[in-house]
Design goal:
The chain is an alpha+beta fold and 246 residues long. The chain has helices at residues 84-100, 108-122, 128-145, 189-200, 213-231, 238-245; strands spanning 2-14, 18-25, 29-35, 54-61, 66-75, 164-166, 171-173, 185-186. The strands form two sheets. A five-stranded mixed beta barrel has the order 1-2-3-5-4. A three-stranded antiparallel sheet has the order 7-6-8, with no helix packed on it. The longest helix is centred in the last third of the chain and has 19 residues, at 213-231. The termini are far apart. Bound molecules: zinc ion. Residues 152, 154-155, 157, 174, 176-177 line the site of zinc ion (ZN). Keywords: DNA damage, DNA recombination, DNA repair.
Length: 246
């Protein structure tokens, strides 16, 4: 018998009444759980087998899946469903985890970031994209690809004049080293500072940082390109929905 906290990332119908869940757990990382009978009207599992629901699970491991013996709700994050923006950005946060992490690889930092992120999102009424950029930068850092922002990632130069961001090298790159990555993205001082602040300020405090929408859009594009490159993926499906909101 295994016991762990977990958040449902995805549900997939299986046969008439069951679901296969992708769940991100604190102890075992991302796992597939068979929730037998979860679609039955009187099932105990209706609430704790929906995306965003945060549960304390008792599981056992079968040949292909984990199975639930008990699930107690810790937080349903119901208020995320009350606004289209919250639910759309929330699905993107779940997709980030689902696409970036292999099965059964534990990462407690990412687990805690997700819980904290969903808590902040539950009450968000504005600044959604600023929040998501801060989340993206922290997420990719905890995954092991923290953007190198202190010095030129190639030569170590501290000069911040005419720097660019190199997705390929994973950090800022100076004027002299730009030859190492001809596709590096121009960033001015303002953009550099905004990226630095969103990476290092705690999620709940980023709303005090003032920055223009234009800057946030640019940072979001850079963050997405960097994440996709780092995890070797082509796209995130939920970003198409986010574009329709912005
Ligand atoms: Zn350099």
């Amino acid at each position: 018998m295994l016991k762990t906290e977990g958040i449902v990332l995805k549900e997939l119908r299986y046969r008439d009444t069951s679901k296969i869940l992708s769940v991100y757990t604190k102890k075992y990382g991302k796992i597939s759980i068979m929730a037998r009978g979860a679609y039955r009207p009187k099932s105990q599992m209706i609430a704790n087998s929906q995306p965003f629901s945060y549960n304390d699970y008792q599981l056992y491991k079968g040949k292909n899946f984990f199975y639930i013996t008990q699930g107690d709700i810790l937080d349903s994050f119901y208020s995320i469903r009350e606004r289209i923006e919250r639910v759309t950005y929330g699905y993107y946060m779940l997709e980030l985890i689902d696409k970036s992490l292999p099965e059964e690889q534990e990462n407690e930092k990412i687990f805690k970031l997700l819980i904290k992120g969903l808590k902040v999102l539950s009450f968000l009424d504005k600044d959604y994209l600023k929040f998501i950029v801060a989340y993206e930068l922290k997420f990719i850092s905890f995954l092991g690809y923290k953007p190198y922002l202190d010095k030129c990632v190639v030569c170590g130069s501290l000069n911040k004049k005419d720097i660019k961001f190199s997705v390929y090298e994973g950090g800022i790159i100076c004027e002299k080293c730009v030859i190492e990555d001809p596709f590096s993205i121009s960033i001015n001082e303002e953009l550099y500072k905004a990226m630095y602040n969103l990476l290092y300020t705690p999620l709940e405090d980023i709303f005090n940082i003032i920055m223009s929408n234009d800057l946030i859009y640019k940072l979001h594009d850079i963050a997405v390109e960097y994440i996709l490159y780092s995890i070797d993926r082509k796209k995130f499906n939920t970003l198409d929905l986010i574009k329709t909101l912005e």
